[in-house]
Amino acid sequence: MSGGSYYVPATSKWPILGSLALGLMMVGTGMVLVHDRGTSLMVLGLLAVLAVMGLWFRDVVKESRQGLYDAQMDRSFRQGMGWFIFSEVMFFAAFFGALFYIRTFALPWLDGEGAKGVAALLWPEFTASWPLLEPPGDVAGPRDTFSPWQLPLVNTLILVASSITLTVAHEGLKEGHRDTTRKWLFATLLLAISFITIQGIEYYEAYVHYGITLEAGIYGATFFLLTGFHGAHVIIGATILAVMLVRVLRGHFSSDNHFGFEAACWYWHFVDVVWIGLFLFVYVF
Q1: Which residues are registered as beta bridge partners of 2?
Q2: How is residue 2 annotated by DSSP?
Q3: What is the pLDDT along the chain (285 residues), one digit of tens a residue?
Q4: Which of 91, 141, 219, 223 is most buried (CB neighbours < 10 A)?
Q5: DSSP secondary structure code for residue 9 in this structure
Q6: Cα(65)–Cα(260) distance, rounded to whole angstroms?
Q7: Which residues are in the Heme-copper oxidase subunit III family profile domain (predicted)?
């Protein structure tokens, strides 16, 4: 602390260790994708990344509990979380953009429409449609698609409900009602686990009964890229909520100092909004 106005964090080894762990994981992932080997390296890198994140967050929690952070650090955390969520928005925007490009431009071109309709010469018998059940060439498409009004609708209701329960928990914390926070945060975590479970059931149905796989043409690829990455974010979000619940049970946070909890809320609400977009453009339209 300098002059009581600016906190300078202590020297930390975690940034460089995190970079090395992430680099190790990426090298292993590249080897798996290109040479079909290197799984052990990829898993080792992933475990190293998780270990660094856990230990780094542990130190941040300790510093916060010791009262080392001031208003300037609070602004830094908020700005950092805001930019992180913005990067996540751009991440999903890329996949949604790919989906819209395929449906709006690529498929009509292959059917002879538009400025690049000459692409229809590749597969003269191709007819544009979505979902694409009969891809051109030798690719086998899915046998059928999901009804949006069954498992996808249930998961949508679950995530919307989880945003409501998390908001109640957050408001309880701001009002100093810790019992309310504990109960509703636990309910949110149960809803998150329910979503993940139903998503697993849906994937089983997709592979076994619907023929929707990563190899089932462009529909299968976009379906699993969008829902799979979202599912990974739900798992991460559920893990964060579980950590928040443990911290609440240990007496962490106060009504006016709980940005860790608030950041978890931001992340979870973002995950919910992304799912609504998935429900509409992957399942319904």
Answers
A1: 6
A2: B
A3: 444 556 666 788 999 999 999 999 999 999 998 998 989 999 999 999 999 999 999 998 998 888 888 888 888 899 999 999 999 999 999 999 999 999 999 999 988 888 788 878 888 888 888 998 888 877 888 988 999 999 999 999 999 999 999 999 999 999 999 999 999 999 999 999 999 999 999 999 999 999 999 888 999 999 999 999 999 999 999 999 999 999 999 999 998 889 999 999 999 999 999 999 999 999 999
A4: 223
A5: P
A6: 12
A7: 2-285
Which CATH code is given to the segment(s) 70-284?
Answer: 1.20.120.80
Radius of gyration of the chain, Cα coordinates, nearest whole angstrom:
23
Question: Structure pTM?
Answer: 0.89
Query: Residue 109: which H helix or E strand, with range?
Result: helix 107-110
3-class SS at 201? helix
Distances (CA, A) of 277 to 41, 47, 107, 272, 283: 35, 31, 21, 9, 10
Give the torsion sign (CA, 186, 192, 52, 90): negative
Beta partners for residue 6, in sequence order: 2
Q: Show the CA angle centred on residue 230, arms to residues 229 and 236, nearest 5°.
A: 90
What's the CATH fold of domain 1-69?
A: Helix Hairpins (1.10.287)
Using CA atoms, how far residue 252 sits from 86, 154, 245, 256, in Å, is 28, 34, 10, 12
- Compute φ and ψ for 257, nearest 5 degrees: -145, 85
3-state secondary structure of 168: helix
Domain ranges of the chain: 1-69, 70-284
Within 13 A of 13's CA, how many CA atoms are on the CB side?
5
* Cα–Cα distance for residue pair 121/106, rounded to 1 Å: 14
DSSP 250: T
DSSP state of 6: B
